[in-house]
Design a protein that fits this description.
This protein has 222 residues and is mainly beta. 7% of the residues lie in helices and 49% in strands. The protein has 2 helices and 16 strands.
Amino acid sequence: MRSELFAQDHFEHQSRERWARQSDRMLRVGLGPDVVATKGAMVAYQGRMAFRHEGSGSIGKLMKKVLTNEDAPMMRVSGEGEVFFARQARHVFTVLLEGEAITVGSGSLLAFDDTLAWDIRRVGGAGLMSGGLFNLELSGQGVLALCSDGPPMILDCSVQPTFVDPQAAVAWSANLVPGIQNDLSMGSLLRGGSGEAFQLAFSGPGFVVVQPSEGVPAVRQG
């Protein structure tokens, strides 16, 4: 059988690394140790796997999920073999945390080592935005995988104040505490507005990862 489908680039790339990108849009994770992933992110696996709902882990987290409407349904993957993750053909990249922390939009989270701790954080100062904006903070020792709707760009927030559309913000340094920049005035409201009334405002030492799209929400509004 002959076809460009069978080009070498389309076959699985063998690797001894636990976390390995098969392409810029697909991730391979080797088990052993459990991995926690966004529900629906698994596209294939080889070996013996079990997939179970991953709960909040504590009453405090459960209450935060209920009160904030932060909905990041996750599953725990256990077993032996390898599992492949992807999400709507978005670009995939991994981050190794060595005792650090990072804040991510739940819409951009793909999977992470179960050694990492996570919690729900709220962006204050949302004003007219009912309930504010919410995201996830991951910390500890381990790897996480994020996805971006297109090639991501990293902005250094220590150079000058940085403002990002909430739906374009993939992740940012956990030490940064973003505020809400509100450009909405009564005059612009009466004229129909610009469609860019609210932005996340970052300032200080750290970075923010921005995707070139507003089509896939990176931070959920409560």
